[in-house]
Model the fold of this input.
Amino acid sequence: MGMNALARELKRGSTELLILALLEERDCHGYELAQQIDARSRGEISFHAASLYPTLYRMEGKDLIEGRWVEKPGQRRRRYYRLTKAGTRMLASQRSVWDTFFGALDRVARIRPA
Amino acid sequence: MDWIARVCRGFEDGSAAPEPDVIAELAEHAAALHEAARADGCSPEDADRLVSVAIQRWRDEAATLTRPVRRRPAVAPPSTMAPARLLGAVAQDIGYALRLLRREPRSACLTVALLAIAIGATSALFSVAYGVLGRPLPWPGADRLVVLEETRGGSAARFGHVSNTTYLAWHDGASTLAGLAAWSTRLVTLSGSDEPERIRIVAASASLFTVLDVRPLLGALFRASDETLPVAVLSETLWRDRFGADPTILGRAIELDGQPHTVVAVMPAAVAFPDRRTQAIVPFVVPPASANSLSMFEAVALLRPGITVAQAEAEATARGRTGVDAGMTAMAIFGSRGPVRVTAQRWVDAWTADVRRPLIVLLLAVGLLLLAATASASALQLARTTGRLRELAIRAALGAGRSRVTRQLVTETVLLGAMGGAAGIALAAILNRAWLVLLPVDFPRSGDIRVDAAVMVFAAVVAVGASVASGLLPALRLRRLDLVSTLSDNGSAPVGVGRHSRQARIRAAVQVVQVAVACVLLVGASLFGRSFMALLTADRGFDIAGVLSSRLSMTASTYESPERRFAIVQHALGRLGATPGVTDAAFASEMPLTPGGSTSSLSFTSPSGEDVTAQAAPRLVSPRYFAALRLRILAGRGFSDADTSTSQPVVVVNESFARRYLGANAVGATLPMAGYAPPDRRPVETTVVGVVSDVRYVDGGTRSQPELYYCYLQLGGRLPVRTVTLFARTSSSSAVIAPAFASVVREADGRLVVDLTMPLEQRLTSTILARPRLYAAVLGVIAGIALVIAGVGLFGLVSYSVSQRSRELAIRVALGASRGSVLWLVLRHGIGITVAGIVVGIAVAAAGTRLLATQLYGIAPHDVWTFVGVPVLLLIIAGAASLVPALRAATTDPLRTLRGA
Done:
């Protein structure tokens, strides 16, 4: 498996986790989310705008996040997303799954989470 | 720039455009992208190209750019719901619950059956306990009704409870009483219009009607001035059964023991005094007091309002001491010439005193059964809920609030409880009827036992309580419902957790309760059962097996002549003895094991030279009596056909008499004849020719009394008694011999009837042993049900635990554990719980058997066999209940289990 392929697989599995984690810090709109992921991963993980919105809508459908239109003075009207209770629980559960996974990786292949 | 228009244009070439809301969001993104690119120093053309690329990709993914419609909760929470819709939702819940129960009929039926049995048994016993101990008596002022007992020098009378001297001394002008009545019961032959029939009647002073404050159903009750007249008041039962509720019965003559009595009134059935066996009431004249004479009877008094029992006792005692001195007669009847003392007890307490404690014990027992059944139903419901957690979690995930899901569960539980309760009440009504059949006829207040509003309310409260309790565990379980873990759970516990989860501990605790309850009830039932067996097989001094007895009454005026009665009995005995299958035929003036009866006083010089005044019960018997009943001859001889009017008058004394009055040299002593003196009253000296064993009553309280046996052949061809009991020791079945009694008596005189023809054993179990047998049987059934509940519960628990631990057990086997060790591992679980239950149960039983001590005969409350046997039985049941799941666990292929998991 090439590097790109691995990155794609990991990204697909982790998208939701990343979004949940970012929304845990503060409410964000879509563009902001994409920027944050790009910046935080130092460009290693970047979202095409095309795949971001379907993911957001799917998560909204599962009641993990909740979107609403907000109009701030001097800004355009934007759709902000925030975590729901179910989203908070899902984040905790996913964190523990990934934690376990990385623990196992470390024990087996000496790979540590950064 | 109009970004929305720009994005819209991007979707124009055929692909389905997203909803405006999504377009707006994408437009906002495009704007932000453009802005950022420009800020990063891109040219407007480059920034525009970036936006175009983004729009291009959105168009490629257009199908996924739809915002799903948020689902609303399936049913809004009840708090915000209009009442009409709430009703609709409840109906929906019930419909859903019914469908679910139909899908899982086994568990539902089991729960309903458990609740029905427990609620039915509890309500039925409550109806008995309430009817006997709690229900107000049907008479106004019944709580002021007291029964009296007179003692002299601290000793009670041998028969009757109040003497005529005390009664008469108190009767007039008693300041504490509103009324005082004398009464006694007797058996008479009713004849006149139909077949002769033996009935129980009450002879009572006219004041009885005032004391009881009764109104006749028909006619007018007799008054004090009528007490010497031959009149009778019929019971409603007799009036209906024998006279077909004839409205013209008043004024008609009936014959009681051959004496015509005019019917003056009919008593309502509600007033059955002293119990429902009474068929008629005739007047009773209290004999005037005279020196050296006492007449004994029963007395009942009505206290004035506000007067205490103690005040009445004080007045009666003071008045009683002013009565005529009865001299030696007091000695004969009371065994003392000491001062009179009168005690009073509330009528209903005195009446029900003997059954109070057993009924309370049975009520406690059935309460324990209710506890075990409810715990068991609760465990069943818990298991059902656990099996449905996924379903419930999905419902919650689809938007049903927790309260909504809980309400669904509560609806199901209440539905099961209601079904169990309804079935239980129906069962109670059936059991109630069975009770009335099983109850001995002399059981107090049995007429007051019925399923009425009070019992229904009780049953309803018990049903609601039991169903709520049985739904408690599942509801608690639901409070801890975790959506994610439930949905990701595959249904089997993590290795090593199966027995230690919170739920497993709750189930184990419930099971411990069930085993403990079964243990307590089994101990009680075993004690009652062993006590009953001890009563049944107790050494009574004679052999009751294989003896038929029958009562012959020659009370009508036709048999006025003692010579005629002698001839009848002699003829009947001869014919009975010649009947094939009869090895011995005999008669006695008194039925053995009938305590009381008259005693006589006799004075003589004992073999050691002392002057003795003895009290003894005289019995008239035929020569083969001792042989027929196998009474042991301890010294000398019994009677023979050679003991006749012309031979030396002889007497056989019982062990008690010999020990108390004659010492070791009883045979040969001379005694005056007591009780059956010849008509000319000349004294007859009799010689003691033998000593026989005592007839022991063994009913818990009655002691053997000194008895004197005379041979009827020595009374000059006369039979001074009117009622005798015939006995036949048989070598063939009693059913074959029984008709012989009737036929030999009819041969002697066509108008004679015998009654109460039955084996002595049956007579024993239907009289003295009737109540112990009833208590033992009822407690046995209750304990049996509790045992089944515990056994089935244990089976369910161990099976469930095995299914939860299947992976763990498979891993153990895969790692080399032997089948035997797996088998033992599972068995140990069931047996461990049972041992815990036994420890609790035995501790409770050991403390509780004190309650039973007075009800037990021939067995200690801490009977070793019971306290060892019950745990052993429970362990065997536990082993059997655990063995099936254990074998299943030990024989499962571990690989298949592991792959399947």
Remarks:
- DSSP finds four helices and three strands in chain A.
- Residues 3-109 of chain A form a domain with the Arc Repressor Mutant, subunit A fold (CATH 1.10.10.10).
- Helices of chain A lie at 3-25, 30-40, 49-61, 85-109.
- The beta strands of chain A are 28-29, 65-71, 77-83.
